[in-house]
Design a protein that fits this description.
about 150 residues, mainly alpha, Non-ribosomal Peptide Synthetase Peptidyl Carrier Protein, Chain A, 2 domains, 4 strands, about 50% helix, transmembrane, membrane, transmembrane helix, MSC/AndL
Length: about 150
């Protein structure tokens, strides 16, 4: 039982995912600091004056619970875009390149699918001869991947 658990933990994909997650968390902290200390002051500066931030007060003056802070939303949006770009260019692209060198296609387009005429499942591989869900015989696929 412990040997099986050890084999599960030592699989290459699981280690790759764990390392990617740790790197993503480290970049998240770095990008959060960038948006908090660089982007937020710039966005707040556009508001001008001594305002709390870029937004509107919906309730009592000075009540932060009723302040609609668009500056924080813009900052979060910029954070998300930067974070996704970092993940894509520093983790996904090198991983795809590494897997391609090994002969494995990572993050590729899904293959063609067809619809089962009996149960209307739309996720059958185009080459399937039986439905995964209802086990009915499938007609051969056409060139476009749709059933006849």
């Amino acid at each position: 039982m412990l040997k099986g658990f050890k084999n599960f933990l030592m699989r290459g994909d699981l280690i790759t995912i764990a390392v990617g997650l740790v790197i993503a968390l480290a970049f998240s902290t770095l990008i959060k600091a960038f948006t908090d200390f660089v982007i937020n002051p710039i966005v707040s500066r556009f508001q001008g004056g001594t305002s709390v931030g870029l937004g509107w007060q919906l309730g009592e003056e000075g009540n932060k619970a009723t302040y609609l802070d668009l500056g924080q939303f813009i900052s979060a949006l910029i954070y998300f875009i930067i974070f996704m770009a970092v993940i894509y260019f520093l983790i996904v692209v090198p991983y795809k390149h590494y897997q391609a060198r090994r002969g494995v296609k990572a993050f590729g387009e899904p293959g063609p699918v067809k619809t089962c005429p009996a149960c209307l499942s739309e996720d059958l591989p185009a080459a399937a001869s039986k439905c995964l869900h209802c086990a009915t015989e499938q007609p051969p696929a056409t060139r476009t991947g749709r059933s006849l």
